Amino acid sequence: MHPKYLFLGAAVLFAQAFPSAAQLTAQPLVSGPTTQQQIPSTGVALTLEEAVAKALAANAGLRATALDVAIAEGARRQAGLFRNPEVSFVREGTQRGTRTQTVQLSQVLELGGKRSARINLAERERSLAVGNLSVARTDLRAEVTAAYFDALSAQERVQIAQVSLDVASKASFAAERRVAAGRVSPVEQDRSGVALSTARLELSQAQSELSIALLTLAAYWGETVAVSRPLVAPGLDLAPVPSLNELQQRLDSSPQMRRARLQVEREEAQVGVDRSQRIPDVTLIVGSKKDDQIGRSQTVLGVSVPLPLFNRNQGSLQASLSRAEKARTELEAERLRLNQSLASAYQRTQLYREQVRTMRDDVLPRAQRVFDAAVTGFEAGKFSFLDVLDAQRTLLQIRTQYIQTQFDRYRAAADLGRFVDADSTTPNNRIAP
Q: What is d(CA 139, CA 415) in angstroms, rounded to the nearest whole number?
């Protein structure tokens, strides 16, 4: 076989591995299993929705946060209980006939609304625990989404590196045959050998990054082995997200803002508890005293009230008032921080959306046409082998950048989901792709 046709076979392999410009525009990018053992190729593909569901159901950190709600519920139950009464027995004297015996029951009556203030504080702490759980779920969803697309991007890079290696191998063989036939300089064979070695290194690096990414993804639902199922990219969706002004208006209902407001309510409830402690409690005493010397019993009634001369809980009240003011200040700081983070995520989403659109509609088709023209020109004897290799390398780089940009857009949309409702059923309000 003529060496030129050996390289043309490599070009056909590349063209089959990567869709044409028209195909890229007409259909979304979907990952699939390859022949490489390093890429998961068994079982049904693991979708993003399934990965998020597995993490929400089995993540150890999320379960620990959920237990805080159960702890707060126990504290709420304890806060509503009344003080236990006390019973005491006192004997004066040891000789029968002269001793006295007293049995009495004491009950503390809480004044100043202590019990209601304590219940209110416990309820605020339970609400805060629920708010922390909501933030943890939102953060976990965004983190799993980012980890999923990191692994998916690594999977795509392995596929591209494998195709590049296959093409470089056949191209190197074609160059060797051309040198043996005396048609080209041996330098061309050396250059093709360098390209082949570089392709091997890129494939090895891509496989290593994929293994790490799959292990990281599996750790979110408590597994210590890498994901063994292939990943699949969602359909390409370049629909615009709601405007930044609309998203900022929805920011007040974000999990982070709800948690910050609940923290303010919790500190204000603590102020109520410390304020109620300024009023002393009253202890009622009821009992019976038997005097053996006079041979009769007497009823004992009493009241015990501590005198608030020195300790009126003034230090604790001052501290709780300062903590409440601090929580209100942190609420304003959190609002500013979320606005900045939201604006940053929004700008990244818009930027990546335009980059994906430009690369899909303009850059990729142009690179594909350059490669096709180089192959055709090489067949006609107008271009050299290096011209085709250069066009191939350019197309590979652009396609890799296109995949990375597409996945960056998904991650930016996941960041938006941290701050606003990403699960809205209204198409115009949808954030997540």
A: 9
